[in-house]
Structure prediction request, 247 residues.
Amino acid sequence: MERLEILCRVLGYSYQEKLEDIGLVPGQEADKDTAEVLAKQVELLEVTITARFKKVTEEIAYLENRKAIKLKNKYLNKRNKLLKMIQENHQLPAEFNYDPQKKVTSDFPEEVAKLKPIMERVKVQALDRKEIVMRTEVVLESVKQPSCAKTTERLLRALKDRVANEAEFLFDGKDIKVVLNEIQVETKPENAKLPLEKRASSRLRDHQNTKEVTVELPDLPPTPYPSGVRSGHRSQRNLTWGNKPSK
Prediction:
C-alpha cells in the first residue's frame, strides 16, 4: 500500500479514495483477493505515470524544436539581409571576411551577433560607394540602348575622370577602372556592331541577359540588383556565391 500511496501523491489522486475503491482502509491487512486488486491498481497507476511522462517529454521536445526553428530562421533572415546588402553594393562577401557557405547548425544567437557588426560595415561603405555605384549602373543601363551611344560615351568619360584618383574601388570584385575600360572597349563602334556572344568580355552579356543566370543556393536570397543590372564576370560571381561557372 505504500507504493499505492506514492503513486497517488505523484498523480495527484486521493489515496483514501483509492483504498476505498479497493475495499481497504488505512492500516488494514489485505487478503489474497484484495492484494490482487491492489497490485492491479498499482500497475494501472504506473502505466498512467509512464504515459504522462511520455506526453510531457514530447511536449518539451516540441517546444524546444519550435524555439530552435525560430532562432534558425532569425539567423537565416539576418544572413540573407546581409548578402542582399552586399550584392546591392556590388561587393563580395570576401571583402568583409564573411563566408556565406559556412554551415551553421547551432548557436544561432551567437552567429546573429557576429553578423551585426558586418552589416554596420556594409552600411557605412554603402554610403561611401553610393555615388560611383549608381553612376556605374547608369552607364550600364545606357549601354543597353543603342540610340544612347553618345550619352554613354559622355557618362563613361565623366565617370572615368571621377574614379581616376580612387586608390581602390572594387565593383563586383574587380577594380572599377578595369570595369570601365572593359565597357569602353565593348562600346566602341567596331565592337558594338558585333553579336553579343562575340564580344571580348562577359560583362555586357551578363548585363543584357539578366534572366539567364540565377543563383540556386539553399537559404540564400535571389540576386538583387535594384536597377536590373547584372554586371560583373559571371564565372567570378558564380564561384563567389557557390555555383559552378556556366559553360
User: Anything to note?
Assistant: The radius of gyration is 35 Å.
